[in-house]
Amino acid sequence: MTETFSDAYDEKIRPLMDRIDQARSLLSSNVDGIKFPSVVVVGDQSS
């Protein structure tokens, strides 16, 4: 079976993004808070 980009995203990337959101919620409620990046660029570099 051929995996589509959407299938791969839902299976591999989305769970990681959900964990990051959970960590951000837990840690940002701290007074000092931990700053997470708002934008992340993932992929190969092209020149």
From TrEMBL:
InterPro entries to which the protein is assigned, alphabetical: P-loop_NTPase
Name of this protein: Uncharacterized protein
Lineage: Eukaryota, Metazoa, Spiralia, Gnathifera, Rotifera
